[in-house]
Amino acid sequence: MTSMTRIGIFGTSGMAREAGDIAWALGLEPFYVARDEAELRAWSFSAQAILEQDVGHYANMPFVIGVGENNIRKAIAERFKDTLGFTNLIHPSATFGFGQREVLDRCKGTIVAAGARFTSGIAAGDFCIFNQNVTIAHDCIVDGYVHVAPGANLSGNVHLHRGSWVGAGAVINQGNNTVKRVVGENTVVGSGAVVTRDCEANAVYAGVPAKRVK
After folding, report:
1. What are 117's strand-pairing partners?
2. Residue 205: in which H helix or E strand, if any?
3. Alpha-carbon distances of 6 from 38, 51, 57, rounded to whole Å
4. Element (H, E) at 4
5. Contact 47, 20 (CB under 8 A)
6. Which residues have C-beta within 8 Å of that of residue 3, sequence separation ≥ 6?
7. Domains and CATH numbers, the chain
8. d(CA 11, CA 7)
9. pLDDT by residue (tens digit) across 161-198?
10. How many CB atoms lie within 10 A of CB 134?
11. Can you tell me the distance from the alpha carbon of 167 to that of 189, in angstroms, rounded to the nearest whole number?
């Protein structure tokens, strides 16, 4: 009997285990990478977990980073960019407009969860997380290290800059073919917010309509 292909997932939290669920759906056996001894001792699930300091012994296997926080995901990616091979995890239930799956396949380290929908003309960067049941509509640009939380909707012609976070159930109303609706670099859009105007960088927006709160 041929052994199942394995994939390493950085993290031991809920996001990492959700990434593991995607791996299982793709016929891959996940193992997890704990940051330190304390995190490893706290691991209570049946799947194997190893220490980050030992990942070099698994360098022939693919990895993803199942960490929801963009800055931590970026730090891990930078730390291991020359020693590990990062791949994508794309749930088989995710759906894509014409040519869009190929766009995602050219990314590195990106996670696409169950029920995600990508329509057409979308550009995406590396090490993003598109969580359950998100909708990324036409002509959006999503830079690297972005996290789009469950149920969020980008309504078309939206540009999420590097490191931004769109909370669960948030709606980013569309821009147009000339000027996209912008969420600035490292900006957080709160859960359930409705963005009708551009969001500045390094800020927090919340509410309906969304306003800057920090």
Report:
1. 95, 135
2. strand 204-206
3. 24, 16, 13
4. none
5. yes
6. none
7. 6-87 (3.40.50.20), 90-208 (2.160.10.10)
8. 13
9. 999 999 999 999 999 989 999 999 999 999 999 999 99
10. 25
11. 6
132: which 2 tokens?
């359950």
Calpha distance 43→15 (Å, rounded): 14
Name the average pLDDT for the chain: 96
User: Which DSSP letter does residue 108 get?
Assistant: S
Edge-to-edge strand ranges of the sheet holding 188-189: 89-90, 111-112, 129-130, 147-148, 165-166, 188-189, 204-206, 211-212
The amino acid sitting at 124 is A
Residue with tokens 């147009």: 176
Query: What is the rounded distance in angstroms from the CA atom of residue 8 to the CA atom of residue 61?
Result: 7
The residue type of 182 is V
Take residue 125 and report the two structure tokens written for it: 């960067």
Q: How many CB atoms lie within 10 A of CB 207?
A: 13
Return the H-helix or E-strand segment holding 88: none
Tokens 């730090």 belong to 75
